[in-house]
Amino acid sequence: MQRAERLKSVASSNALELSGVSRVFGALVAVDNVTFSVTAGERRAILGSNGAGKTTLFNTITGDFPPSNGRIRFFGEDITELPPYERIRRGLRRTYQNSQLFRGLPVLDNLYLAVRGVGRRRMSLLRPGEDHPARIAARQLAHAIHLEEVADRPVSELSHGQQRQLEIGMALAGAPRFILFDEPAAGLSPAERRELVDILKALPSHIGFIIIEHDLAVALQVAETVTVMHQGRVFKHGLPADIETDPEVQKIYLGGRHG
Hints:
Residues 16-256 form the ABC transporter domain. This protein is α/β, with parallel strands linked by helices. The chain has helices at 3-9, 54-62, 84-89, 107-117, 133-144, 160-171, 190-201, 216-222, 240-245, 247-254; strands at 14-25, 28-39, 43-47, 69-74, 77-78, 92-94, 178-182, 208-212, 225-230, 233-238.
């Protein structure tokens, strides 16, 4: 089935629904009455200038900063009041602007800990053998994120781009249903950005995601739909080609046509 046909077939099945979501910090309204939905398997980009409320919106979805108002539903379940770990158990994952990795451990051990962290008996003190399902899953993740050749190297020896790839691998641990990527291309070289795009495009089609990204060349390649935010509010929704050429978006966010 073609991807467009698959998306149409699941149009009534929303992975994520935000209804009137706001987040207030004292007198600052960081997210203001945001309402939209993302269908199962959909890939969406959220664009906007610094301070538009994009990362704060992610934090409300994951439970790091519960919304001041509004409701959040994940595959039909209201998760507004759930703590972050319960959202993770339901298949929600995210990456952060700043790497959250175990820098003194090898790549494979980082992936193994991510797999164990979302699985059962994760507090066991017994070190598993190489044939343990969690170790096998870690090696499979290393392959998926193109890090097989450096799987035994400490994270501290990886390039910035490889560390970003590792974060994606850790977010993929434990059969996620939906992932939030927060500026995964930040600080990457052109070659590393191409590698990132290849990895994101190759994700299983049933895993939807939202990506916050300032690099439009990355965001518009991997997204099927785009939401533009401004001053904490949703400014516009559209297809990548329409957003790219929209004069209001260019004027307010892009500073004119980008290359």
